[in-house]
């Protein structure tokens, strides 16, 4: 068993998807000869040819819009948007077209399109390269929104997303691209695409993260353990649909919930979880749901991003507050 | 480019030979009269509260029937919300078209059956879909082409310009069919462009041609030629069909606020249906009996459309949850259940 990075796992998963169905295409800026700016599509152009791994003009709306047309024709395009902040030029095509064509055509036209978006901060990047746009997409009916946090999940979830007959916004935690994990590609059975996963069992408080913040939650849980507190960590994996059942089961035992994400807190996934867990676990809750999130500001210049991003200290602080109720 | 002048005299253009039988020419006229009558009936139905809105094609019959009749079964169409005449040529039932405007569904025909996607409301949003579909045809080795229909206003949209770029660099089999009807709601052509629209194509590296959009023969000839060009693998073409939106933008619009009666009169003299009729009469290709027959057929169609529209049932309330996702979605599935249970407690529940 070899240690594989999340980036390599995505590459392997895309390769399996391309091998498995000749209707699968990979398209985007620099995904061909270069292998993508993060090298996620490295080698695919050489092995599958330029008709299936397509370097596109530099136009995000054009990428998603033509993918919609290709799906109309029976293809399964996997689009790469180079960075989170560049998803917005394609916003109309994603939200008003891709998400709605199945409804518009009363189920006649299927849109099996994956839009891969490297997202989140923590890599010292310039403006527009560190954003977390998940709430926009999770708020849009017709889209599915997922985000793997580990190489094994990345490997399986990209294949499940390609196989899905609905459009999937596939958010890749770019600061975890180089995280390694030992797993055997192709071995074992994957978890369902939209199921949350208990990443670390615990008793006293439930920490919920996804994508880049799962590692933050695990680190906070380890630190809390040293203080004698047992934190359960849940990796949501999917934001639409949201596996509220798994979170509710945990909170029914712990009575305390802390949600951690990089996206701004206002109307974010943490707000949704606070409301739905409040509805479902009212009598189990020992404390209000707390959110540790990016602030409601534009993503800051990189010298300040450590102040913006939820980190171990902020999560631990929230754990203390929750336990103190 | 024109093959009929405003008075209906046939003009020859050696680049665009069009050899039609008298019967084919009569059928072009018939189609124009029928869609005009359908369009008028839809406007009336809106005024009577049967439709929420209607976007009239009045004045654009030649542009639409000409291009629509150039298509064949190999081809596929992506259009805006005004292309009822193209949909007619694709065999879409006009009663079916009205469901969208009545508010029973967002899309009222099977795109794969018609070879035409449902109306697109976001201006220019479908141009890229047409190019993507054409890229799929290219990969499949199919020998058809895609017709993408939009108006003069849409040429200002980023998506239309991106569609031009993608189609050009990949040599996609697409015919961009711009009906320049002079007005984007209240904004005249001068607010969209400083050059004739067909010349935009040159900058993207493919041919552009301007055609008299009120001349059904010219529209048919040019669309046929362009589709053949695209199908042959020679890449995209832009056609600018110069026409006029004789009605307001939609039934919600008041065109008297922004354009003069003189202008409307000037274009009324170029009426596409009258022009074809003058040609058929002058050349003896149709007699009074034919015109009478077509008019009667138009009235029958109007009656059928009226009856069909008024009889169109509202969908059941749970339809709001249908077809959002292909597979299960826990949130929607739970909401549907909750909604159904909530509805069921009322005595008049469906």
Automatic annotation (TrEMBL), chain A:
It is an enzyme of class 1 (oxidoreductase). Coiled coil: none annotated. SMART domains: Transket_pyr. SUPFAM superfamilies: Thiamin diphosphate-binding fold (THDP-binding) (SSF52518), TK C-terminal domain-like (SSF52922). Its EC number is 1.2.4.4. It comes from the Bacteria. InterPro entries: THDP-binding, Transketo_C/PFOR_II, Transketolase-like_Pyr-bd, Transketolase_C. Its cofactor is thiamine diphosphate. Residues 4-179 form the Transketolase-like pyrimidine-binding domain. Pfam families: Transket_pyr (PF02779), Transketolase_C (PF02780). Keywords: Oxidoreductase. This is 3-methyl-2-oxobutanoate dehydrogenase (2-methylpropanoyl-transferring). It comes from Streptomyces glomeratus.
Automatic annotation (TrEMBL), chain B:
SUPFAM superfamilies: Thiamin diphosphate-binding fold (THDP-binding) (SSF52518). InterPro entries: Alpha-ketoacid_DH_E1_comp, DH_E1, PdhA/BkdA, THDP-binding. Its cofactor is thiamine diphosphate. Pfam families: E1_dh. Keywords: Oxidoreductase, Pyruvate, Thiamine pyrophosphate. Residues 30-299 form the Dehydrogenase E1 component domain. This is Pyruvate dehydrogenase (Acetyl-transferring) E1 component subunit alpha.
